Every structure is written in C-alpha cells, then in structure tokens.
C-alpha cells in the first residue's frame, strides 16, 4: 500500500514538473500563442501574445472568438476559419489596439475526429513609422490600407513562409504571378514583418505616363521642366528612406529608364532629374510583375543585368485555380465584408460554392472578390444560387442552360464542351489548346475522348508536330 502511494506521488510530482516545464516553454516562446477549445472559446494566451497584441489575458480567456470578432477585438480569426474548414488556416488581421498580426491556426483532433483544441502561432506585423510627417509628400504616398487575408492551401503557406524569411533580410525581392493573385498583399506583408523603420511606398509603373515616371521615381530639381515646383521635389526612392519601395508592374518601365533604375539599385544613390548631386538612399526594393521577364530579356525589352539584380529572392504566387482550397474561405471572407458594408445577410448555397470551386478564375482573387460583391449587391433574395452566378457570369452567351430544371453538373459539362470546341477550333495542336485552357495536354485529350469530340484534323497536326520534334538517327 505504501509503495503504491509513493509511486502515485512520484507520478503526480513528475506530471506537475512536466506541466511547469510546458508552461515555461509556452511563456518564453518568441511567437505569440493563442489556444482555444473545439468551440472557439479562449483557453490560453502567452505573454508574448499579450505584448504583441496589446491585450491582457483577462480580456480574452473564456471568451468565444466569434464574440471577440463581433465586439471588435479582432477583425478576423484563424480559429473561426479552422472550425469552418476542419483544417489549418492562416489569417492576417488587425487587433482593436491597432496592432497587425498574422496567425496560423492548427486543429488538434480527438480519437473521434472532432476538434478538441486549436493552437494558433502568431507573428507581429505591426507597421512602425518613424518618418517625420513634414518629410512625406502625402499626395504621392500610397494610402495606408490594412486588409486581412485568408488562405488554407499549402501552396500559399509556402509563399507566406518564404515572404517571412525574406522580410528578415534586405535583399531585393521579385514577386511573380498572374494579375489578381495578391502580389501587393505579399509585398506589404514582407514590409510589415521586417525591421524597416521607414514607410511603405507603392508605385504602379504602368499607371504613370512615361514622361513623368522618371521624375516620380527619382525626383527633380527646381526648373528642370515646365511645371516643375519651384523648390523641386523628392522622388519615391528618397521618400522610402529606411523603408520599402514596391515597384508594381516593373516590366512596364521603358528600356531607357531601366539603366538609371539599375544604377540606383546598384549604387544605392539617386540623382534627381535636372540635378547633379548624388543622394544616398537606404531603401528595400520589392518589384512585381505578371509578365515573363526571362522572355522579355531574351527579346531585348528588359535588361538582363536589371533582371538579375531584382531577382535575388523570387517569390512566385500560384493562381487561384491551382489552389482551390482557398476559394471557399475567401468567399466566406468577402461575403462577411460586403454584408457588413451594405448591411445585408446574403449567403451562398452549397452547390454554388461547389460551382465556384470548379470555375476557372482567370482574374484570380481580384475577380473572385468582384463577383462576390456583385452577387451580394445585385441578387434580391438572401440565398444566392448557381443560377444567379450563371447569369452574372453571362454563361447564357456560351449556350449554357440555366433553367430551374438544369443541374449544375450538366451546366458545367456544357460549358466545358463549348470551351474545348472553341480551343480546338482556334489552335493548331492539343498542346496549344490545352495551354490556353490552363490544363495539361493529357487532361485535354482525355476530356475530348470522354465527350466523344471530333479532333481528327488537330490530331493529325499533333502527329506532325511529334514527328518533327523527334531527333534524326
């Protein structure tokens, strides 16, 4: 009996030691830790989270995440997304104290497959401005726009992980991706997560007329051209001192300005238009494009030396059609935003969400956001159906049946057949047609056979193309 009590006491002592050690580890982690139960009730936050959020444990423990969002403590919640998705989710959000945080929520399941805990790792992305207000040209600084972003896919998880690594160094970064994938969001994330003391300045190189772009980037001296301000004006590189300059649509910079841009990046100094004085700069450069810069280098429309100078840390953001796991979380996020904005209570049917997952989002996240807003504003009833979506996306012009009797699968099948027929008609090979459709050649051939489509002429051209590509023996 005595031995049993001693063993039990030993086990209790050991368990207490383990708990104490675990507490010490959690409290001394450099990341913020926020733990909820399987219903989203706050169980624990560590000291690091208190410091980075500006909130006290007493304000949070015991409260449900949905209530905390409603009460304005958080603009979004990774835990809420985890409960909806039954899987890990990452969210960038704002705390009521104005702090900007990035949280990755990971579910812990019980033996029955139910979520029993959600563990959130949290990073501080709070932007710190130390530039004097009189130094900044407010008309030319980009509007400070704090947006949340949400994702669930492993592909975007890898993008954010690389972005956070890149934020710790001052190397030049080149963000690649189709229009609408969120290149500007990742650029802002890198700046916010960095130790840059200055501001974040974005310039769209395609939106500024060519004759003004040089003076916008590098500034100008008094009297350098007609209409120039008497005292001259600093350029974007000067205004981004100790901060970040984001050169969006970098491929649109004319070739004659690329040499000057290269010199500024290389020498870390700028000469204003009409001036001779060399001004030292300390600015992080992030560039982005939806164009193929390597192809442009081969054609001579983009300088090779500038390309390699910018492409120190490349970050490629995959299109939305390659990360379909993000579509429904994004729809949920946008729906909440526009319901609040327009004081509505709209929602989507399950079949409509399935339709969205299958749709080829050529415009990526930007197109998805626009479509969700349009549907919420235009559709009269509170529940939005796939027929509403088909009408908004003008599928009728593609001969897709959208009557009440039509099934979603039939509508999708008809649209797919129509698009394949058009691609086969307009392109010389299945390889080219598949590329246009955004699918593999083998997938296209399989669908052609599935739908019993005629492609004898194009198959003949495939055979000729294959024959020409074979090496002579």
From TrEMBL:
GO biological process: regulation of DNA-templated transcription
Xref: Gene3D superfamilies: 1.10.8.60, Homeodomain-like, P-loop containing nucleotide triphosphate hydrolases, PAS domain
Coiled coil spans: 5-32, 398-425
GO molecular function: ATP binding; DNA binding
One Pfam family matching this protein: HTH_50
InterPro entries: AAA+_ATPase (IPR003593), AAA_lid_NorR (IPR058031), Homeodomain-like_sf (IPR009057), HTH_TyrR (IPR030828), P-loop_NTPase (IPR027417), PAS (IPR000014), PAS-like_dom_sf (IPR035965), PAS_fold (IPR013767)
Domain PAS: 18-69
CDD domains for this protein: AAA, PAS
Domain Sigma-54 factor interaction: 149-377
Annotated keywords: Aromatic hydrocarbons catabolism, ATP-binding, Coiled coil, Nucleotide-binding
NCBIfam families xref list: sensory_box (TIGR00229)
UniProt name for this protein: HTH-type transcriptional regulatory protein TyrR
């Amino acid at each position: 009996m005595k031995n049993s009590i001693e063993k039990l006491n030993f086990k209790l002592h050991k368990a207490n030691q383990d708990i104490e050690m675990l507490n010490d580890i959690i409290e001394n982690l450099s990341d913020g830790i926020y733990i909820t139960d399987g219903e989203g009730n706050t169980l624990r936050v560590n000291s690091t989270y208190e410091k980075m959020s500006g909130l006290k444990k007493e304000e949070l423990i015991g409260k449900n995440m949905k209530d905390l969002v409603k009460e304005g403590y958080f603009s979004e919640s990774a835990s809420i997304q985890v409960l909806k998705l039954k899987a890990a989710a990452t969210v960038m959000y704002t705390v009521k104290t104005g702090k900007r945080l990035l949280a990755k929520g990971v579910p812990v399941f019980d033996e029955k497959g139910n979520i029993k805990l959600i563990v959130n790792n949290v990073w501080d992305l709070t932007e710190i401005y130390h530039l004097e207000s009189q130094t900044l040209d407010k008309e030319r600084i980009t509007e400070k726009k704090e947006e949340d972003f949400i994702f669930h896919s492993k592909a975007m998880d890898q993008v954010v992980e690389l972005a956070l690594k890149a934020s710790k160094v001052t190397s030049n970064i080149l963000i690649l991706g189709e229009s609408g994938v969120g290149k500007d969001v990742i650029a802002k994330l890198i700046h916010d997560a960095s130790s840059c003391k200055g501001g974040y300045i974005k310039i769209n190189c395609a939106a500024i007329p060519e004759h003004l772009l040089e003076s916008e980037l590098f500034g100008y001296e008094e009297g350098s051209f007609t209409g120039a301000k008497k005292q001259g004006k600093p350029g974007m590189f000067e205004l981004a001192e100790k901060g970040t300059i984001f050169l969006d649509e970098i491929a649109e910079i004319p070739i004659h300005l690329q040499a000057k841009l290269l010199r500024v990046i290389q020498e870390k100094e700028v000469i204003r238009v009409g001036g001779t004085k060399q001004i030292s700069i300390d600015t992080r450069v992030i560039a982005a494009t939806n164009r193929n810069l390597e192809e442009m280098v081969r054609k001579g429309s983009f300088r090779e030396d500038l390309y390699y100078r910018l492409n120190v840390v490349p970050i490629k953001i995959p299109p939305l059609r390659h990360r379909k796991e993000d579509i429904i979380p994004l729809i949920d996020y946008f729906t909440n935003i526009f319901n609040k904005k327009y004081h509505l209570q709209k929602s989507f049917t399950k079949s409509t969400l399935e339709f969205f997952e299958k749709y080829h989002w050529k415009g990526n996240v930007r197109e998805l956001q626009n479509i969700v807003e349009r549907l919420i504003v235009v559709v009269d009833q509170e529940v939005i159906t796939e027929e509403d979506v088909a009408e908004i996306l003008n599928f009728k012009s593609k001969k897709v049946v959208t009557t009440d009797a039509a099934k979603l699968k039939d509508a999708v099948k008809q649209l797919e057949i129509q698009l394949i027929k058009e691609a086969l008609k307009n392109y010389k090979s299945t390889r080219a047609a598949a590329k246009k459709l955004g699918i593999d050649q083998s997938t296209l051939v399989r669908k052609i056979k599935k739908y019993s489509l005629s492609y004898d002429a194009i198959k003949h051209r495939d055979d000729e193309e294959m024959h020409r590509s074979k090496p002579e023996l």
